[in-house]
Specification:
This is Tyrosine/DOPA decarboxylase 2. Keywords: Decarboxylase, Lyase, Pyridoxal phosphate. It comes from Aegilops tauschii subsp. strangulata. The protein has about 500 residues and is an alpha/beta fold. The protein has 2 domains: about 160 residues, Aspartate Aminotransferase, domain 1, CATH 3.90.1150.170; about 260 residues, 3-Layer(aba) Sandwich (Aspartate Aminotransferase, domain 2), CATH 3.40.640. The protein is globular. Bound molecules: pyridoxal-5'-phosphate (PLP).
């Protein structure tokens, strides 16, 4: 690692990326890339001798960029965003450049302590109750993804429950989620040994805007208790993946407390909006939860990857996840005395971990709370504009209220007669394919009540109102082309 070469080649990469960001709007958001497209372009073995960075960047430009889906395009409205920003990139550079490995405090004191500070900062900004802050007896950790965070909380909940049951009790543990919860809960439950038949998917409906009701969870819990099972874990989502629906945290928290169930609040996407007071109502009752998570790498200007996980009882997490090989044991006086030392290896699955805290810290320092609130509100406003445009056009239907920045819609059955659900679904699929095929925008879909629904997730760092307005025009144009709109 020669510092001069490092400076020169890193500058070349930054210039390359600056050019990419300058022009990304002009590229088709989704490429036409056939499976195997790169294999035919690249040699089938690595070079024997190293090559120059400009040659490598030229190849990135010629072969890789054309086959990318451009997540940073201002016209990318698919899935949820993976925000990039100048501060997120600068923070990631610091993380990867310093390249320390804070698995124990001793392995990197500043990285560990910055993580604890940043987790308290984020918790305060998102309006979490004090019980999730280190200063309030809880604490937080940065994971790479919500999926990892969920597995860790499931393991903590399982071990807490098994300390009261015999080990065979694992066969009686039950996990509850809604039909809108992220699939990671099902996967996580399997990983920690909960029998597949003990995963309850509780239906939601339009009547509750696709949020859970405490009554429906209560029915499921009581039926399980009556048959000798042990309710273990309940997921409440603030901002579901498909529709942006919200589960009632307080009601579910009261039920969870009554039955000793671990309540996890998954705010992977919408957690970023919680920094605005107008969204705080959605986290009301969080003091009744055991854990909360959200992903700054989605909608908080923090480059991949970064997931915040807070727990009310760090001991519950660490007693499930800690291991103490001799070579990692702390020999310094303060850790030997156990003086509140956090060893983050005991808060996650892996041992090694990057210095993510510095990335989130740079984002928070560079944009501040006010800057981030303005950023979130701008997207919410753009999404609401799109929702109003749909509502004003009788040929479209808005499926669930746009609480954050996700708009969900199908084309309605059109003109005289009922074409039937299959025909309407086929038309909506055609519309999505036509929109994405144009290269002028990219959206994804979801199924709700058996119906195909198009999702438009607003939240790109470079997305402006004109992109949203152009996309509305594009949707209308393509709808006409696929034959949906007859009265325009
Ligand atoms: N939970 C929700 C509500 C999500 O929307 C997502 C991803 O979109 C996840 C969990 C999974 O997040 P990750 O990819 O960080 O594991």
């Amino acid at each position: 690692l020669d510092p001069e070469t490092f400076a020169r080649e890193s500058r070349a990469v930054i210039n390359f990326l600056a050019g990419y960001y300058r022009d990304v709007e002009k590229y088709p958001v989704q490429p036409e890339a056939m499976p195997g497209c790169l294999r035919t372009l690249l040699p089938d073995a690595p070079p024997e001798n190293g090559e120059q960075m400009d040659v490598i960047l030229e190849e990135v430009w010629r072969h890789i960029v054309p086959a990318l889906t451009h997540w940073q395009s201002p016209k990318f409205f698919g899935y949820f965003q993976a925000n990039a920003s100048t501060a997120g990139f600068a923070g990631e550079m610091l993380s990867t450049g310093l390249n320390v490995v804070p698995f124990t405090r001793a392995a990197s004191p500043a990285a560990t302590e910055l993580e604890s500070v940043v987790m308290d900062w984020m918790g305060k900004l998102a309006g979490l109750p004090d019980c999730f802050l280190f200063s309030g007896g809880g604490g937080g950790v940065l994971h790479g993804s919500t999926c990892e965070a969920v597995v860790c909380t499931l393991a903590a909940a399982r071990d807490r429950a098994l300390s009261r049951l015999s080990h065979e009790g694992i066969l009686r543990l039950v996990v509850y989620a809604s039909d809108q919860s992220h699939s990671t809960f099902q996967k996580g439950a399997r990983i920690v040994g909960v029998p597949r038949s003990n995963f309850r998917v509780i239906p939601t409906s339009a009547a509750s805007s696709y949020g859970l009701t405490a009554a429906s969870v209560r029915d499921a819990v009581e039926a399980d208790v009556a048959s000798g099972l042990v309710p273990l874990y309940l997921c409440a989502t603030v901002g579901t993946t498909g529709l942006g629906a919200v589960d009632p945290v307080r009601d579910l928290g009261e039920l969870a407390r009554e039955h000793g169930i671990w309540l996890h609040v998954d705010a992977a996407y919408a957690g970023s909006a919680l920094i605005c007071p107008e969204f705080h109502e959605y986290i009301d009752g969080a003091e009744l939860a055991d854990s909360v998570s959200m992903n700054p790498h989605k909608w908080f200007l923090t480059n991949m990857d970064c997931c915040c996980l807070w727990v009310a009882s760090p001991a519950a997490l660490t007693s499930a996840l800690s291991t103490n090989p001799e070579y990692l044991s702390n020999v310094t006086e303060e850790s030997a005395a156990g003086a509140g030392v956090v060893d983050y290896k005991d808060w996650q699955i892996a041992l090694s971990r990057p210095f993510r805290a510095i990335k989130l810290w740079v984002v928070l320092r560079r944009y501040g709370g006010a800057g981030m609130r303005a950023y979130i509100r701008r997207h919410v406003e753009m999404a609401r504009w799109f929702e109003r445009a749909l509502e004003a056009d009788e040929r479209f239907e808005v499926i669930a209220p746009t609480r954050f920045s996700l708009v969900t819609f199908p084309i309605r059955p059109w003109h005289e007669g009922d074409p039937g659900d299959d025909a309407v679904d086929a038309l909506n699929r055609k519309l999505l394919v036509a929109v994405n095929g144009s290269g002028r925008a990219f959206m994804t879909h979801f199924m709700v009540d058996g119906k195909f629904v198009i999702r438009m997730a607003v939240g790109g760092a470079m997305t402006r109102m004109r992109h949203v307005q152009d996309t509305w025009e594009l949707v209308r144009e393509k709808a006409k082309e696929v034959g949906a709109l007859t009265n325009d």
